[in-house]
Design a protein that fits this description.
By secondary structure, the chain is mainly alpha-helical. It has four helices and no strands.
């Protein structure tokens, strides 16, 4: 399910590309990670994050075209996504108990 949510997030972001341009490449990715991790678990949440990170680093270039900052931005997104997935997993376990 994480794959489906990730692909849908990428497609929605691509549809918004004419409006947003190269700004806010993770605008749809963060909510997608939250939804995936909250409803389906940490694994699907991390899979969604990986799909969104790959798509944003290859299909959606970052503003300014600074290739040296790209790995830091993707890395920051992935670190934040791991924290989000862990928090959602903890919430799921606490809510289910």
């Amino acid at each position: 399910m994480g794959t489906v949510i990730g692909v849908v997030a990428v497609l929605v972001r691509l549809l918004l590309q004419p409006t947003l341009g190269d700004n806010l490449p993770y605008l749809i990715a963060f909510p997608a990670v939250v939804l995936s991790a909250l409803f389906f678990g940490m694994g699907p949440g991390l899979l969604t994050a990986m799909i969104c990170a790959f798509a944003s680093s290859s299909a959606l270039p970052m503003p300014g075209g600074d290739a040296l900052q790209q790995p830091a931005r993707v890395g920051g997104f992935l670190i934040a996504s791991i924290v989000i997935a862990l928090a959602c997993e903890r919430f799921r376990r606490h809510d289910g108990a």
